[in-house]
């Protein structure tokens, strides 16, 4: 049988380990070649060494002067909040009331949900994001609309129906029983169908009764290879609310722990106001943190502590948290992550930030080998980054003396304009329009 071999030439970067803990964290081929076969990575290496191995007649797509790297992974984002990004508000709780809940109400309508899902996915691909962990709304049809759209594009996506049975408007409320029943039906319909993966998604502890959290924990045990996603310790007002609602819990994240929701493939959004024991529990249980810097700065929630998280060995990744976040771009998310680290007295090298947005996220999701780098057999989700995308980027990157300087300029100055093309499963799913 004739295989479908494609080759891509360009400067090639991918990660093998966390640069914070390893001296051999990445492969960098200035003139590199990526060979893709039937949607999977077949080989990567120096162009000079590899191109002779290509069967005669293989087309080599020439991206010389540009960077080829694995697609970005955004580990926390709300697709129903696409239309309300950049809404002004004084803090998280009033912002939820004024903008979020009314926007989410519209997802009762499947046509509206499909329309937003399509725009949302196109926007992710324009920004070079090929995988995301996505919150839908309380309506099961919002999940069907999302996975239908992501399946059409051949994307590896994780998503789930929000479970929320108290402290929210009636029109967005499920019950402990319907929330669990709908979630189980969606797991059976979508989890591991093609590239789709399901996440059990209680919105956050204050909007779930103990019975709902109990049933979510039971589902997490019954379906151990599903994901779990929720919010934790985002801002101080929310943390004191959780203390009132769950007076016997040791801490906010302990609420989830007590219902069996700390385990591999559990992704906790924000993780700002954690204590040492919380971080230890995250590391022990292989639960992961989704760091959302643009959202945390926008809502004034707080500053993530990279140093303490690293000391405890917590699995880390970066996330936009749109619509609390202010950009779909993982490059802009790195830009803000860098500044958050500075304000906490730590330093985030660009190499680390690109790791966190690719292999670090894949590891956090227990998907290393499937996505996140160019290991042989990995799914060929990759992007083409153009260091000359804007006049300023062109000027600055032409003076970069090292890979670190090049990546740093891309993270600080880049956005969707820097993404020349996006590929998913070896197929081109976005190409930047040139003017
Ligand atoms: Zn969020």
UniProtKB/TrEMBL annotation:
Domain (Amidohydrolase-related) ranges: 68-429
| Keyword annotations of the record | Hydrolase, Metal-binding, Zinc
Instruction: Give EC number(s), comma-separated.
Output: 3.5.4.3
Q: One GO CC annotation, please?
A: cytosol
Quote the record's cofactor note: Binds 1 zinc ion per subunit.
Source species of the chain: Duganella sacchari
User: Can you supply a Gene Ontology BP term from the record?
Assistant: guanine catabolic process
Supply one GO molecular-function term: guanine deaminase activity
Q: Which domain of life is it from?
A: Bacteria
Q: What is this protein called?
A: Guanine deaminase
Q: Cite the source lineage.
A: Bacteria, Pseudomonadati, Pseudomonadota, Betaproteobacteria, Burkholderiales
**What PANTHER family does the annotation carry?**
GUANINE DEAMINASE
Membrane-spanning residues where? none
Q: Which cofactor does it need?
A: Zn(2+)
Give the EC class as a word.
hydrolase
Give the record's family classification.
Answer: Belongs to the metallo-dependent hydrolases superfamily. ATZ/TRZ family.
What reaction does this catalyse? guanine + H2O + H(+) = xanthine + NH4(+)
Pathway annotation from the record: Purine metabolism; guanine degradation; xanthine from guanine: step 1/1
Q: What does this protein do?
A: Catalyzes the hydrolytic deamination of guanine, producing xanthine and ammonia.
User: One Pfam family, short name please?
Assistant: Amidohydro_1
């Amino acid at each position: 049988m004739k295989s479908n071999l494609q080759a891509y030439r360009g400067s090639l970067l991918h990660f093998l380990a966390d640069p914070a803990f390893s001296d051999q964290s990445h492969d960098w081929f200035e003139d590199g070649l990526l060979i893709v076969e039937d949607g999977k990575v077949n080989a990567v290496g120096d162009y000079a060494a590899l191109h002779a191995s290509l069967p005669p007649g293989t087309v080599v797509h020439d991206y010389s002067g540009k960077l080829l790297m694995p697609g970005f992974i955004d580990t926390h984002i709300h697709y129903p909040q696409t239309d309300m990004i950049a809404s002004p508000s004084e803090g998280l709780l009033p912002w939820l009331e004024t903008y979020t809940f009314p926007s989410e109400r519209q997802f009762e309508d499947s046509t509206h949900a499909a329309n937003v899902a399509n725009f949302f996915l196109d926007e992710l691909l324009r920004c070079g994001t090929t995988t995301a962990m996505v919150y839908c709304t309380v309506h099961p049809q919002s999940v069907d609309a999302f996975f239908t759209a992501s399946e059409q594009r051949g994307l590896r996506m994780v998503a789930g129906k929000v479970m929320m049975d108290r402290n929210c408007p009636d029109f967005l409320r499920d019950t402990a029983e319907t929330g669990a029943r709908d979630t189980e039906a969606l797991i059976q319909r979508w989890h591991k169908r093609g590239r789709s993966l399901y996440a059990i998604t209680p919105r956050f502890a204050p909007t779930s009764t103990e019975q709902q959290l109990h049933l979510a924990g039971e589902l997490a045990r019954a379906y151990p290879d599903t994901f779990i996603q929720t919010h934790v310790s985002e801002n101080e007002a929310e943390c004191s609310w959780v203390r009132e609602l769950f007076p016997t819990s040791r801490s906010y994240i302990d609420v989830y722990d007590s219902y069996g929701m700390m385990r591999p493939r559990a992704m906790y959004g924000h993780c700002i106001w954690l204590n040492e024991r919380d971080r230890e529990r995250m590391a022990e249980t292989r639960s992961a943190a989704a760091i959302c810097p643009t959202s945390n700065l926008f809502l004034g929630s707080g500053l993530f502590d990279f140093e303490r998280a690293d000391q405890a060995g917590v699995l880390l990744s970066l996330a936009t948290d749109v619509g609390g976040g202010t950009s779909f771009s993982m490059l802009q998310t790195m830009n803000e992550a860098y500044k958050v680290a500075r304000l906490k007295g730590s330093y985030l090298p660009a190499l680390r930030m690109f790791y966190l947005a690719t292999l670090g996220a894949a590891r956090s999701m227990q998907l290393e080998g499937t996505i996140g780098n160019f290991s042989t057999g990995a799914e060929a989700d990759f992007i083409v980054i153009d260091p000359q995308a804007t006049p300023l980027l062109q000027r600055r990157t032409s003076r970069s003396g090292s890979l670190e300087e090049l990546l740093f300029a891309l993270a600080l100055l880049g956005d969707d304009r820097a993404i020349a093309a996006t590929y998913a499963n070896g197929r081109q799913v976005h190409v930047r329009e040139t003017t």
